[in-house]
Structure formats: C-alpha cells, structure tokens
Specification:
The chain is built from two helices and no strands.
Length: 64
C-alpha cells in the first residue's frame, strides 16, 4: 500500500487502528497461553505445587 498517496486523516485512522490491533493481539496471545496452561494443568500434563485437582476439575471449560 502506498501510504504517501493517502489523505492525512486516513493515515491517522489507520495508525490508530493498527495500535489497537497490536494491543489486542498481545492480549489474545496471553489468553491463549493461559488457556493452554490451564488445559495442561487440568489434564495432568503440568502440575504446580499449589494445584488442587478438585478445583481444577470444577473450573468451567470452553465447551470442548
């Protein structure tokens, strides 16, 4: 895309949307890591010292 040909207000809007996308991408990646960690803990692939198996079983799932 040729950014030089864009009007200033369009370029400003694209930059602001790009910042929002970047922030949401970081949050989504963190949520995905948390989901994978919880799945691993729930199914016994990963354990922490403070894990309580009964509490992990009681956590709601994502429907899968």
């Amino acid at each position: 895309m040729n950014y030089d040909a864009l009007p200033q207000f369009v370029l400003a809007k694209l930059l602001s949307l790009d910042e929002g996308v970047e922030a949401l991408s970081v949050r989504a990646a963190a949520m995905e890591r948390d989901i994978e960690n919880r799945r691993a803990r729930r199914y016994g692939n990963l354990q922490r010292a403070d894990d309580n198996p009964r509490l992990l079983e009681a956590e709601p799932t994502d429907g899968a």
